[in-house]
Amino acid sequence: MTGTEPTRTLPILDVFFDSPNAAATALRDASRDQLAGTLGRLPDSAREAVLGRIGKAAAGLLELDVTDVFSAAWSRSAALRRAARETAAAPDTEQIVGLTTLNTSFAHEPSVEVRVKGVPVATVVLRVVLEVEVSGLRAVVQRGCITAVQAGTCTITGTLHVAGNEVTRRQVNVDLPLVMRLKRGIALAEASPATAP
């Protein structure tokens, strides 16, 4: 493998929405009821401006890459851990480990603090739950890290709540490219001091 393949990312936002604008609009509208009393005294234009900023800020919190979700699941694979130890000890080697099916779940609870004239008046809490199933995957392991995945398909089922209310539930199927490099790699074992780059 060469280092020329493009890095592909899939933000959590893309699981739930077709565009960042659609995300900001949905999250703004979902925040409206929770903040009705808090923002009720503001003029309509100011209230809409605050809600718009909340929607954009909340959408920004969903930029976490879905591939980061795999880290915990992959660290439980005995075959991957063995390959990580072996490649950490021999850093010029590479191993490709086949994984028939990989299932993992992920929960994330970011929040947006709302301030009016610099004073905190409310906090909008998002809850993201993802169920991920990957089939036909091969992981490339080098220097104790998963550095790329080859081929495979991925089904992601996600639920998004704002202030305890479900905003959307969606399932997406992703055909992983022939090679998807992981920009930071996923460390499963540390190289020994004598072999570390």
Number of strands: 7
Low-confidence stretches: 1-6
- Structural class by sheet pairing and helices: alpha+beta
Mean pLDDT: 81
Can you tell me the number of structural domains?
Answer: 1
Oligomer: single chain
The gross shape turns out to be elongated
Share of helical residues: 25-40%
| Gyration radius, rounded | 21 Å
How many helices? The count is 6
| Largest sheet composition | 7 strands, antiparallel
Order of helices and strands: HHHHHHEEEEEEE
Q: State the separation between the terminal residues, measured CA to CA.
A: 19 Å
Instruction: Give the DSSP E fraction (strand runs of 2 or more residues).
Output: 35-45%
If you had to describe this structure to a student in words, what would you say it looks like?
- The chain has 197 residues and is an alpha+beta fold.
- The protein has one domain (12-187).
- It contains six helices and seven strands; from the N terminus they run ααααααβββββββ.
- Helix 2 (20-34) packs across helix 4 (44-60).
- The longest helix has 17 residues, at 44-60.
- It starts with 11 loop residues before the first helix and ends in a 10-residue tail after the last strand.
- The model is unreliable at 1-6 (pLDDT under 50).
